[in-house]
Specification:
transmembrane helix; transmembrane; single chain
Length: about 325
């Protein structure tokens, strides 16, 4: 019976995913400091007639929407991959230190060498990758233990957080430029940000398609995967690298947006199961919807103040994380 229910949920999820994505996108284009009717949104997107509405839509809201879609998809897919590799549904790029690595190197770029800020996606990925590599090596004991990966990740996260705080103290005169980024948000993001983020994000998301098979096989256990011809440690390392790349891309533009990689894939896993043929694409879609919807709420509900989306997601994600911990504790 559970198999039949899950099959129905998968079918319905595929049916409603596109309408939900379109609805979230229209919601983002219509609402903000200035509310714009749907008809005007359509005219602004399809006609070249200059107007105030068209300027707001094309120059301000559309690039922000597209960036939000990519950021949400990248974080959710990264979380889904890490949860499979580490075999823990509570894993998240932010919790285990991958995001912190990207954030630290991105902060160094912005504070110390701001003239190199056009390389922010690259430096953020390098930071996330180095962080993931260190965590992997610390957890290595004739194989990377999932439990040790979590413990090493938490320790590295705390260590990088200390370096981040020290960096902000040393460069306190420049910290105002970094503070909004540390909160996580899409305020001020433009076509320039979209253009240098999109190639990296699309490459990462396309590569994640090739991660579906190895991620499914790793869920069977190391011994079973080896029997099926998989080189387990190499596959695990490559999946962690891909997750670090996706997290680094998201961090480079949106800053430290948390909990998307935890909440979305975990919820999708509960509803649709752990099959990555469904889990990965639906996580990407769910992450995109969540970030776009939360960003629209954050910029419109508190007008004239624009709340960074990272703060709103933390307010929603932290209680959800505690609920999951409590639930797992009761089930243990």
């Amino acid at each position: 019976m559970n198999v039949i229910k899950r099959s129905k949920r998968r079918k319905w999820s595929l049916i409603i995913a596109a309408p939900l994505l379109i609805s979230a996108s229209l919601f983002s284009l219509c609402y903000g400091a200035v509310s714009i009717p749907i008809a005007e949104v359509w005219h602004g997107l399809t006609r070249a007639e200059p107007s105030v509405y068209q300027t707001i839509i094309v120059d301000l809201r559309l690039p922000r929407l597209l960036i939000g879609l990519l950021v949400g998809a990248c974080l959710a897919v990264a979380g889904a991959l890490l949860q499979g590799v580490i075999k823990n549904p509570l894993a998240d790029p932010g919790i285990i230190g991958v995001t912190a690595g990207g954030g630290l190197l991105a902060s160094i770029t912005m504070l110390i060498i701001p003239q190199m800020s056009h390389l922010l996606p690259v430096t953020a990925f390098i930071g996330a990758f180095i962080s993931a590599l260190v965590i992997y090596l610390l957890a290595w004991d004739r194989g990377a233990s999932p439990l040790k990966l979590i413990l090493a990740g938490v320790a590295i996260n705390a260590l990088l957080g200390a370096f981040q705080s020290g960096l902000m103290v040393l460069y306190s005169d420049r910290v105002q430029a970094v503070l909004p980024w540390l909160s996580g948000g899409l305020n001020g993001r433009s076509w320039h940000h979209f253009e240098f983020m999109a190639p990296y994000a699309l490459v990462g998301l396309l590569l994640s398609i090739f991660a579906i098979k190895p991620a499914n096989l790793l869920q069977l256990g190391d011994e079973s995967a080896k029997i099926l011809g998989q080189k387990v440690e190499r596959q695990r390392f490559l999946l962690i690298t891909l997750a670090a790349f996706l997290a680094g891309v998201a961090v480079s533009v949106a800053g430290l947006v948390g909990f998307v990689g935890l909440v979305v894939p975990h919820t999708i896993r509960l509803l649709l199961g752990g099959d990555y043929r469904y889990l990965l694409p639906m996580s990407a879609c769910g992450g995109a919807i969540l970030v776009v919807f939360a960003d629209t709420i954050a910029r419109s509900a508190f007008d004239p103040i624009e709340l960074p989306v990272g703060i709103l997601l933390a307010l929603l994600g932290a209680p959800f994380f505690l609920f999951l911990l409590k639930k797992r504790g009761m089930m243990a």
